[in-house]
Every structure is written in structure tokens, then in C-alpha cells.
Write a structure and sequence with these properties.
This protein has one domain. It is α+β, with helices and mostly antiparallel strands and 151 residues long. A hairpin with a 5-residue loop joins strand 1 and strand 2. The mean pLDDT is 84. Helix content is 49%, strand content 15%. Bound molecules: zinc ion (ZN). The site of zinc ion has 8 residues, from helix 4 and helix 5. This is SWIM-type domain-containing protein. One of its GO terms (biological process) is double-strand break repair via homologous recombination. Keywords: Metal-binding, Zinc, Zinc-finger. It comes from Rhizopogon vinicolor AM-OR11-026.
């Protein structure tokens, strides 16, 4: 079990991270400011990799007719399903990605707050840089059933 101080500082970092992401929108000035803020809580490599994914139109946002969204990030070797907002009230885990580094760096070692895919989805959403695709209702269901890990 983690000491209380460590848990609180993790929580603080999460708040800073959320605040940094909120700074981003489609205008240039906020981009510079947001990147500066992110650098306080995430490694440069994660930030650069996330921005690179966005530049390559790698963030795909599937929308259903009833307004649900499902995100996928096209990495260099695989496509990962990203769930950026699991439960805002949860202090344990607020997002999820199916990539291996999320499992190791975020869930097991807790050395990172999020992987580049989750960051890419959060930022692309803020900057309206997602590739939006409509999705048939049945195939979304299959996607979700196939990708969400067992509890
Ligand atoms: Zn990931």
C-alpha cells in the first residue's frame, strides 16, 4: 500500500495534468502554454509522441447516432482502444488504454500518469483534431465487448 503522502502527490499531479489539458484549444497561444504546463508532469518523449500521433491523423473518434464516442489510436504497429474518461470521481484510474506501456508504466509501476495514446486522445479532442467517423451501432458494441478488459 502506498503512503498517504505519495497518494496525495499522485492526485495533485493528476489535477495539474487535467488542468494542462484544459488549456489546449484550437488557438496557437494556448498550445504553447499547454505544452509548457504538460512538461511539468509528463516526460517530453510522451508529449512529443502524442503530438506526433495527432499530426499523423492517428486519433480516430467514432461517433454513434446517439452521441456516444469511442476512441482508437493508430500506432506504428498496432491500433489501440483508448478510454479517456472512465470515471471522473475515481482517484485510482481515470483513463485506460489497451497498449502494453499503459499496463506496465501506468498500472503496474505507476511511473507514468498516462501513455502517449491517452494524451493524444485528450489533446486531439481539445484541439478538434480527431478524425471523426460515424459508426454503426452493432459494430460499436462488438468493439467495446472485444476490447474492454475483464474486471
Ligand atoms: Zn497507450
Amino acid at each position: 500500500m502506498m503512503p498517504i503522502e505519495a497518494t496525495q502527490s499522485q492526485l495533485h499531479l493528476r489535477h495539474v495534468l487535467q488542468a494542462s489539458i484544459q488549456v489546449f484549444d484550437s488557438d496557437e497561444g494556448s498550445f504553447e502554454e499547454g505544452v509548457e504546463m504538460l512538461r511539468a508532469v509528463l516526460p517530453d518523449t510522451t508529449i512529443i509522441a502524442a503530438l506526433d500521433l495527432i499530426d499523423r491523423d492517428g486519433v480516430v473518434k467514432y461517433s454513434t447516432s446517439w452521441g456516444q464516442h469511442h476512441y482508437e489510436v493508430l500506432g506504428t504497429t498496432s491500433t489501440y482502444a483508448v478510454f479517456p474518461h472512465l470515471n471522473a470521481a475515481s482517484t485510482v484510474i481515470s483513463s485506460y488504454c489497451t497498449c502494453p506501456s499503459f499496463a506496465y508504466a501506468v498500472l503496474i509501476s505507476e511511473s507514468h500518469l498516462m501513455c502517449k495514446h491517452v494524451l493524444a486522445v485528450c489533446l486531439a479532442d481539445r484541439m478538434s483534431r480527431c478524425v471523426v467517423r460515424p459508426i454503426e451501432d452493432d459494430s460499436l458494441l462488438l468493439k467495446l465487448m472485444g476490447r474492454i478488459p475483464p474486471p
